[in-house]
Amino acid sequence: MLEVIAESILAAWLNIPQDQIGIADEAGLNAMMETQLNQLADQDEQFQMLVAAAVRGKETINFDGTWLEKRPDLSLILTNGVRARDFPLTIECKLIHKATKKGVSLYCNKGMKRFIDGDYGWARQESLMLAYVRDGSSIKTHLEPYLGRHFGKAHDIFCTTTLPVPTGSSAAQAISKHRRRFRYIDRAAQDDPGPIAIEHIWLDARGSN
Q1: How far, in Å, CA of 21 to CA of 142, rounded?
Q2: Second label for 201, Cα 20 to 30 Å away, from 85, 104, 134, 136?
Q3: Residue 32 to residues 13, 39, 54, 133, 162: CA-CA distances in angstroms?
């Protein structure tokens, strides 16, 4: 499922005009992605079998209900599964641009870590991270080394079990896997959320002006 959705995100990105990509901020890019993904949900047979709608800023709660108004950047309402609307597939998005002090550290600590800590995607075992890259950074040259510096250490805050592995049709895609550090409330101790697979998609957002 993640692979099909990732390929659809790449297709949606190609439909956004380059002159808009280069000047839009993160919120603007998310809004354009929402529009394009909803068009795919209306028109593409393969995508619409999986996704009913894309929603920007859908309000949700964290794993124990202590935060009631979490708003992931994009949520994909899936077509199957119990309470699919309540537990969408979450996409957290980050703009990467060193000139504005937004780099891989922000992507990991203020984005990916939210899935590990149970703020986002706590009822699912898969999620997506989307990077809008304006400085030429890549998964291979930036994300993989950053996670690698923590990997295997006793206090790896990202709980990585598998470093990013290339996947799909583009070098802009990879999957990493992570343990999760929270436990469901009012459940048996052994009934933990299990690991989460995070699909990373890094898009060239330099555009053309």
Answers
A1: 22
A2: 85
A3: 9, 11, 11, 16, 32
